[in-house]
Design the sequence.
């Protein structure tokens, strides 16, 4: 008896498909069937056409399709501070540029406009999910999702007052209220995000450890970013930052250690045994001269290494393909082995490993039946990316964000032909440009004082 084709929303038929899981596999001539925002099947295109009746068939004969890229650490709204403190060391960058400007500018409007600017940049670069750490998390979440992104926002905690909150307890209270307000938003998640060991005291960190267990949330924190941070911790607390976090109950599988540059061999082992993740931000680490994270040792120990851009103020691009390329190159040089962190593994760091760190690996990060359809199509036909022998290798070492043509988040196409695909996409881009120009003028006036 003939079986009628199963109705689906979309069939996406690229030349190549890198599902990420199974690791290192590349399919040619396959299709992804999508219905209700989820992946129904991954199978040969000829079989897909017989098995499914799609409302839309998208053929991409020169493209590689991968999972959506996961930016495991950023400060989205700092896109409005892109370039204000270039070529300064970290402490001067913070003290002379970032903190004074934040004090003068940060409010709900700044956060909203900066997050929308970041969302447009990230989506056009194939980033479908970002883990944000900044002020006014509810505003950030609403701004990112309004453009089409998936957002994981941090319930930030710092001991000193800002325009957002007065002390660590106030930050946590407001962040938890934001989580309650956005509980039913399907593309919004949360982390607990104490800024850093040097800006958050023991009492707040202990409370965060308890909340992480009660609420089943990751803990997203800058950790061992600079040698100065480590030295200061020893002077103030008698132990290195990771040991202090362990003493306070925060060294666990929930921990996302951002930067993790200055680690001893023993500390790498402690992270591995705890099942913690590292959010590796190679561009920012180099630009601020913080150092080079021991990624070869982390990978050898089995630590889950994800990738992040950090904020555009210290990068200056929210470009995950760039991070993946640099991460692979640094690992090879630092480890003295050209086989370290090959292209397929770097892609996994930029996708599934980020999803794992954020507790989203069952939903996103790979192209598998049952997962949500967060997908990126990269065109590999221009002169600068031919001839082509290995599409994943080319993705990492030859192509760039300018080759991203189409992006889907939960099955919805949010970028098409390199432009925002929504009906109001053009107006969003125009609004982002106008608001960015206005904030730039304000920054210039402040820097002249």
Sequence:
């Amino acid at each position: 008896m003939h079986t009628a084709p199963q109705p689906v929303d979309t069939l996406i038929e690229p030349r190549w498909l890198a599902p990420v899981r199974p690791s290192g596999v590349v399919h040619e001539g396959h299709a992804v069937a999508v219905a209700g925002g989820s992946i129904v099947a991954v199978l040969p295109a000829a079989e897909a056409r017989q098995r499914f009746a799609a409302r839309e068939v998208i053929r991409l004969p020169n493209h590689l399709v991968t999972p959506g890229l996961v930016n495991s650490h950023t400060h989205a709204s700092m896109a409005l501070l892109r370039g204000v403190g270039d070529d300064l060391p970290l402490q001067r960058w913070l003290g002379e540029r970032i903190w004074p400007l934040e004090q003068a500018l940060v409010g709900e409007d700044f956060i909203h406009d900066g997050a929308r600017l970041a969302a447009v940049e990230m989506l056009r670069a194939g980033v479908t999910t970002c883990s944000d750490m900044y002020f006014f998390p509810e505003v950030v979440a609403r701004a990112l999702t309004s453009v089409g992104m998936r957002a994981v926002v941090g319930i930030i905690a710092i001991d000193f007052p800002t325009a957002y909150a007065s002390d660590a307890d106030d930050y946590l209270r407001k962040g938890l209220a934001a989580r309650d307000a956005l509980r039913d938003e399907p593309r919004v998640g949360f982390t607990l995000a104490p800024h850093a060991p040097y800006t958050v005291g023991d009492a707040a960190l202990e409370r965060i450890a308890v909340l992480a267990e009660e609420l089943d949330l990751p803990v997203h924190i800058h950790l061992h970013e600079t040698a100065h941070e480590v030295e200061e911790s020893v002077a103030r607390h008698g132990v290195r930052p990771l040991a202090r976090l362990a003493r306070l109950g925060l060294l666990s599988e929930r921990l996302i250690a951002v930067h993790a540059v200055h680690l001893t061999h023993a500390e790498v082992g402690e992270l591995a045994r705890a099942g913690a993740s590292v959010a590796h931000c190679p561009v920012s680490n180099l630009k601020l001269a913080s150092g080079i994270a021991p990624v070869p040792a982390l990978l050898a120990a089995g630590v889950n290494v994800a990738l992040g851009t950090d904020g555009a103020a210290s990068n200056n691009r929210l470009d995950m393909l760039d991070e993946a390329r640099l991460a692979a190159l640094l690992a090879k040089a630092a480890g003295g082995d050209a086989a370290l962190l090959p292209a397929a593994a770097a892609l996994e760091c930029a996708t599934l490993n980020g999803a794992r760190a954020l507790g989203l690996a069952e939903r996103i990060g790979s192209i598998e039946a049952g997962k949500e359809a967060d997908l990126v199509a990269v065109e590999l036909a221009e002169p600068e990316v031919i001839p082509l022998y290995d599409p994943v290798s080319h993705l990492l070492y030859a192509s760039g964000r300018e080759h991203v043509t189409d992006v889907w988040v939960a099955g919805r196409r949010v970028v098409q032909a390199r432009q925002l695909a929504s009906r109001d996409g053009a107006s969003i881009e125009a609004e982002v440009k106008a608001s960015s120009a206005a904030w730039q003028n304000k920054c210039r006036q402040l820097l002249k004082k």
User: Anything to note?
Assistant: The chain has 16 helices and 17 strands.
